[in-house]
Amino acid sequence: MNEIPIIRKGAIKDYWTNGFSGGLIIGILVFLLSLTNNSALTSLYFGLFTWIGIIAIWIGIGFTSEEYYKRKKKIKNLTSDKYAFLDKQDFTLHEDLYFEGIYNGFFFRVLPMTKWIQKKRGRGNDIEYVVIESFYTFDSDSGDKEREAKMCGDYFLGNVHFGNHCAGFVPNDWDNPNFKENFDGLISIFKRENLIPLMKEDWEKTFGEKLKKTKKDEEKAKTKQILKIGKLDIKSRKPDKKVSR
Predict the structure, then answer these.
(1) Strands 99-103 and 92-93: what pairing?
(2) Taking a C-beta distance cutoff of 8 angstroms, is the pair 168, 75 a contact?
(3) Where are the alpha helices (DSSP H) in 4-93?
(4) Who's near 195: CB < 8 A, 6+ residues apart?
(5) Nearest alpha-carbon partner for 178 in 87, 89, 86, 78
(6) Same domain membership, residue 70 and residue 18
(7) pLDDT tens digits for range 178-215
């Protein structure tokens, strides 16, 4: 398995930025509230210490816990025998802790996920599972969405979702997945439905770019709608002119 750094590149900068900006806002609030009972200099010290304290918490506790200890534990799990099959198939473990690789001419992405399951009295535990994805295309561009909708459903592998030329599912054996059986099973479904395997680069150049453009257009449309609503609200709040009698 390829080696990846325990600490992500640029991670410390993210925690520093959040701690700096968040601490500054709270520090200013503490300073202003403290002015009611203390001098300006004492209040300034309170605000400054609060600012520094929040930065220290973000980096000292948050960064150390999330980006070192927890991440180190996850990497150890991802390089264990549970994922040995992916290693044998020369899959790449990325810095963001997911796998990508080629198996029998098909591109596969394996996304390890964690979900918190709450039990009684606020107690619970983390459930670890994987999501398996693969890209495909049709021999014809007609009726892609309708055909994908019809293909979605329960299979012997699990509930497979087809959309945007990407098939994804949580395998039935999610707690200890047999990757070979799951990969072979999805390939058999692709062949039965006459789906053509699509590599990651080809998918990103075609369907990936379309999705990005669609998302940007939706965000622009939402922004315009918000601005329109805002203008209407401003107009509605204007008091009516008084008519002299």
Answers:
(1) antiparallel
(2) no
(3) 11-34, 40-56, 64, 71-78, 84-88
(4) 136, 137, 138, 189
(5) 86
(6) yes
(7) 999 999 999 999 999 999 999 999 898 887 777 776 66
- Same domain, yes or no, for 107 and 196? yes
In this predicted structure, what is the pLDDT of residue 244? 37
Strand boundaries in the chain, DSSP class E: 92-93, 99-103, 106-118, 124-137, 153-154, 159-163, 166-169, 196-197
Asked whether 98 and 110 are in contact (CB, 8 A), the reply is yes
**Given a cut of 70, is residue 226 above it in pLDDT?**
no
Structure tokens at 103: 């198996």
Q: Residue 225: is its pLDDT beyond 60?
A: no
Task: Answer whether residue 5 is part of any domain.
Answer: no
Q: At 9, is the pLDDT very low, low, confident or very high (cuts 50, 70, 90)?
A: confident
Contacts of 185 (CB under 8 A, 6+ apart): 155, 156, 157
Total structural domains in the chain?
Answer: 2
Domain boundary among 53, 78, 103: 78
The answer to whether residues 9 and 95 touch, using CB atoms and an 8 Å cutoff, is: yes
Residue 128 lies in a domain: yes
238 pLDDT band (50/70/90 cuts)? Answer: very low
pLDDT at 16 over 60: yes
170 contacts: CB under 8 Å, gap ≥ 6: 129, 130, 131, 132, 158, 159
Task: At 200, list the tokens.
Answer: 């990651």
Is 128's pLDDT higher than 80?
yes
